[in-house]
Structure to design on (322 residues):
């Protein structure tokens, strides 16, 4: 067991953001039940700094986020670049968005360090439970203000008082929302590896980069663009203490590329419509990374699969044909 507390660091990051609310262009208040609600883009603009805080709190201090850029034809697009230590803790036990806290088309799905306390979803834990859950952070991608009932659900699942729950939220249709979706590069690959039986504990470090989608006030439109960032624009690099064969036997099977059938080359908004706008109905094959590189720490060899599709990004983001 480790003494690392994801929530201790995540709470500290969020408390710092609250103390700098004007600078970060965010809002916070106390819910009726006593939980702290932190709005990073629903009724406020949010900011690049707020996006960085959202991502790094989601890692529980086990990763850093920075910004870069990429070119898509004549357009320059910012990227969110993430540098992850302890990927099992940072992204599988914490950042992964899979704690179902609501139902319906835009259901609340919890992510963040609170998952490492509640252990309430299929991807949580993996031998880790936060040793110091005195206060917890849950993160939501939602256009609605979280209800008292949701806050109470989190508090009960984590066995803490509601006053010790921090609920950080932002809709997809804002800067922080677009940033945090595009930050899930390492998360997406680690989950795919786990589902295919790869020893994810052998992955020691991760790096990922993906474009931050152009913003729109339409939640459905920006959800499509933000997911296109991962499906068509993301690159993830992992460093794994495994032999070459462990990589070559699995790597070609899970990237979303030209070999993935009829849906490859289709913007995510169109794919989403095909599955009645229900995220949990989207087949595993389609929820896959664009390009993955894995470096074997045993041999020093690196292997790559997948490809970036700038044509889809240009069409999705700008209505532009390359």
């Amino acid at each position: 067991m480790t003494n690392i507390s994801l929530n201790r660091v995540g709470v500290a990051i969020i408390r710092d953001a609250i103390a700098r609310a004007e600078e970060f262009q965010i809002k916070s208040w106390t819910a009726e039940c006593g939980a702290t609600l932190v709005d990073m883009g629903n009724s406020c603009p949010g900011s690049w700094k707020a996006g960085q805080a959202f991502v790094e709190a989601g890692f529980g201090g086990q990763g850093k986020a920075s910004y870069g850029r990429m070119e898509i034809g004549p357009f320059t697009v910012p990227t969110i670049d993430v540098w992850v230590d302890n990927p099992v803790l940072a992204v599988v036990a914490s950042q992964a968005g899979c704690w179902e806290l609501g139902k319906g088309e835009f259901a609340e799905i919890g992510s963040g360090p609170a998952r490492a306390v509640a252990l309430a979803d299929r991807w949580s834990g993996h031998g880790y439970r936060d040793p110091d859950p005195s206060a917890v952070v849950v993160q939501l991608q939602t256009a609605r203000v979280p209800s008292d009932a949701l806050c109470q659900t989190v508090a009960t699942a984590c066995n803490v008082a509601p006053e010790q729950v921090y609920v950080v939220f932002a809709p997809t249709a804002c800067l922080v929302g677009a940033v945090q979706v595009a930050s899930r590069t390492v998360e997406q690959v680690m989950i795919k590896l786990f589902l295919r039986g790869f020893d994810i504990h052998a992955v020691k470090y991760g790096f990922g980069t993906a474009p931050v989608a152009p913003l729109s006030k339409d939640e459905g439109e920006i959800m499509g663009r933000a997911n296109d960032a991962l499906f068509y624009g993301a690159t993830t690099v992992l460093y794994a203490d495994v032999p070459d064969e462990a990589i070559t036997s699995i790597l070609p099977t899970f990237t979303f590329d030209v070999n993935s059938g009829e849906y490859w080359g289709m913007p995510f908004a169109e794919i989403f419509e095909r599955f009645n706008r229900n995220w949990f109905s989207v087949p595993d094959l389609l929820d896959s990374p664009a390009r993955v590189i894995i470096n074997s720490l045993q041999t020093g060899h690196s292997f790559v699969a997948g490809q970036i599709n700038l044509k889809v990004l240009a069409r999705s983001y700008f209505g532009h044909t390359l």
Remarks:
- The longest helix spans residues 219-233.
